[in-house]
Amino acid sequence: MENVDHLILEHLNGLRSDVVSLRTEMQSEFKDVKVGLNHLDGSMAGIRRDNALSAEDFARQQGSIHSLVERIQRIERRLELQ
Description:
Helix content is 94%, strand content 0%. By secondary structure, the protein is mainly alpha-helical. The protein starts with a helix and ends with a helix.
């Protein structure tokens, strides 16, 4: 019976060692995942900023085009081209 108990303890110690090893490996990989997610968050913030700047540029260009159209229409009215 003592040999069986000893064998069971050996298996349990081996399992404990495997669990500790897996836990350490998983913690390391979770750290890598967290670092990757932080990089993605930074990239997404940059994309949002770029989109906002593009929208701002588009709005500014539309305003300029609108002003030019109004000026051309005034010029055409003064020259009686319409």
